[in-house]
Amino acid sequence: MLGNLQALIPAFVLAGVLTAAPALAQTLAERLQSEFDAGGLPGLHGTIIDLGDQRLAEVYFAGPDERWGMPLGKVQHNPESLHDLRSVTKSVVGLLYGIALAEDKVPSPDAPLYAQFPEYEDLQAQDGRDKILVSHALSMQMGLRWNEDLPYTDPRNSEIAMEQAPDRYRYALEQDIIEAPGTNWIYSGGAVALLGKLIADGTGMPLDAFAREKLFAPLGITEFEWIAGTDGVPSAASGLRLKMPDLAKIGRLVAQDGVHEGKEVVPADWLNQSFQPRATVNEFTKYGYLWYLAGEQPNIVVIAVGNGGQRLTVQPAVDLSVATFAGRYNDRDAWRTSLKVVLDIAVPEAKRILGR
C-alpha cells in the first residue's frame, strides 16, 4: 500500500515567528541538485518548499515516469508538467467533500453510509451495514475487508479489482464485514470512491467538473487531468494529475486555513474536523478525514501520500508546505526520497529561519 507507514512521520514540530531570509531559494535549490546528482534523492521528479510567503526552493529533475501505470519513458519535468498524484488524490477529495458539505450538497459525516446508495437495497438489508457511517468512509474505518498491501500491478489488489469490476460502488459496498465500524483503520480506495460518488450525485456534477469550479479555479489552477476508469468515472482514489506549482497552491491553501487571496475556498471548520485524529495508523501516525496526522494541535502536521513518492506535507501553525513528486512507483522504499526532502532539507532550513 504505502510501504513502511512509519515513514509518514515527519518527526518535527516547528514553532516560532517567521523572519526574513533573503536568497534562500537558490541555496536550497543548489543543495537539492547536489543531493540528486550524488544519488541521495533517487527518483525525485521535483519539489517545492514554501514557508509563509517565501518560496525556499522549486526544482525539477528528469526521470522515468508513468501516467496511472502506463510508462511515459524518461520525462524532463518542469513547472508545466502534469504528474500523477496517486493517493494524494484522496486528500484532495477530502477538501472537495468539505466544500460540498458547506453547500449542503452531501450528507453529514454522521449520516448512515448505505442509506445514501438506495440502488443497492439488497446490501442495505444485510445485518451490520446500517451501522457504517459516512464518517467511517472519511476516516477509513468502515470495517469491511479490503487489501491494498499487494502491488498495484496485482489484480488481487482491492483497488485494482474495484477498477476492473462491472460496478465499482457495489464492489466497494459488498465486501464482507470483518469488524465493527470505527474499530480499526483499513486503508481503502473503495471508501474514497464512495465519497466521490456522493459528491458527484449531490452536486449534479462529475467529480472533476466540481473540482474545477469550486477548488481549482479559485486557486488559479487552469490545467489538470483526472483519469477515469473504464466506466468513465474519474478515479477518486488515485486519478488526479497536477502540475507541481498547483499542488503547492493546495498546500498553501491548507496552511492558511482554507483561504486563498482573502477568500475562503475550503471552510476552516471542515479543515479543523479533517485534522482531528479519528483513527490510529500506527504508534506514530493518526488519521483524520482523508489526511494523515502527526504531532498534536496546535502544531499538527498534516500529510497526503501517494504511490511512488508523491507527498504533500503541511504544518499550518508556521505556514510550512512541502510538495514532492517522484517516480518510484510500486517501490516499497519510495517514501525515503520524499521524506528526506522534508526532514533533511526543508525542516532544517525552516528551523534556521524561525530561529529554532
TrEMBL record:
Residues 1-25 form the signal peptide. Gene3D superfamilies: DD-peptidase/beta-lactamase superfamily. Residues 39-326 form the Beta-lactamase-related domain. GO terms for molecular function: hydrolase activity. InterPro entries: Beta-lactam-related, Beta-lactam/transpept-like, Diverse_Enzym_Activities. Keywords: Hydrolase, Signal. Pfam families: Beta-lactamase. This is Serine hydrolase. It comes from Hoeflea prorocentri.
